[in-house]
Amino acid sequence: MPRPIIIDCDPGLDDAIALAMALRSPELDIKAITTSAGNQTPEKTLHNALGLLTLMQREDIPVAAGAARPLMRELVIADYIYGKTGMGNTHLP
User: Signal peptide: which range, if any (predicted)?
Assistant: First the structure.
């Protein structure tokens, strides 16, 4: 029986790969995804999560935007590493 889970992430390249693997795992039943600011803005991480779900034909999973900034430090946008979208040169739907 698949384990029901909620995934909290900040989808840039690294989390997008992990999320794609989780979406294809027969051991997981993803009930929802929450996104937050991380290496990119909360708007871009939300867009990346929704785009990945569209690409993988899993738009049935609800997505909610979470924290707009870290609790204990300033938000550092790492577009010099992950690009302007957080996904390098990858463009999602």
Answer: none
Token look-up 């957080």 returns: 86
CA distance 46 to 9: 9
pLDDT band at 7 (very low <50, low <70, confident <90, very high): very high
The token pair at 73 is 């430090």
C-alpha pair distances (Å), 17 with each of 9, 20, 21, 67, 72 = 11, 5, 6, 21, 26
Q: Where are the alpha helices (DSSP H) in the chain?
A: 13-24, 42-55, 79-82
Claim: this prediction has a pTM higher than 0.85: yes
CA distance linking residue 8 with residue 34, whole number of Å:
5
**Cβ–Cβ < 8 Å for 62, 32:** yes
pLDDT in tens, 64-81: 998 888 888 888 888 888
